[in-house]
Please model this.
Amino acid sequence: MSGACCAPGSGRSGAERSAPHVRGQHPATLVELRGGTFRMGDESRWAYPGDGEGPVHDVTLSPFQIDRYAVTNDAFASFVDVTGYVTEAEQYGWSSVFAGLLPDDFPDTRAVVGVEWWREVPSADWRHPEGPHSTIEGRGNHPVVHVSWTDAVAYCDWSGTRLPPEAEWEFAARGGSSGPFPWGDEREPHAEHRMNVFQGTFPIEDTGADGFRGTAPVNAYEPNAFGLYNTTGNVWEWCADWYDARYYSRSPHQDPRGPVGGSGRVTRGGSYLCHQSYCRRYRVSARQGTEPPSSLGNLGFRVARDMVA
Model:
């Protein structure tokens, strides 16, 4: 799978989990999109050919709903409080944390080979994003992280939503833009920061010049033309599809749902760790495959729903 610089492998085998039997309600933050036809993908200088961002192709989508925001810590906490759900990171007892967010005196833990800025941290989970010394206090409006694909689907089952297929995700993320960003062609037009990505020298120092180190609130920065926030940067977002770098060459043009199988699920949008020197996947067309049991400090999700007649 692509994108090892952004998301290390999980090193786990996914556990079979049953969906919660109790039904809940997601916050009323979904927007209705009428669908339509758009140009999906990218073959410009920005793209990573190995990720399968091309060929650029026309896709037509039926109407659907998608959230303005990534799912927050507060929303996920409501789900857990009602159902008693235990995430995969909590079951395994560890998750992957960016080393730059750990205290200087944090005990040595195993680094991920090839992406040594990722550390396996015991007791890191959605409630403790940087490990047992950390909490989500004051971060209720930040995106929930350290959730696997299965965890995200469990939340969707509980809330009567679903994960968006990547075609829906990209259509919504673009907000009508044909450029690499929801606002056009320039990453920082007029020297204005419009997303939460790594600033400075990766992975040594994040200056926080865009206002944040680590996650930002889900309503940070201005929304795109469809009213969606943070569709580039902040956290990677799980999609419904299996990942295949060759899929676009055979993708149907009407409501594509991805290949029938694979070893990774699509993640979209980039994160606070994307940096132009090594990982310019902070774009609306960027895609990578992530192993479903993975839980990372820069990985969350956004929900969607079929349009109610």
In short: The mean pLDDT is 93. The chain has one domain: 30-103+120-306. The chain is about 10% helix and 20% strand.
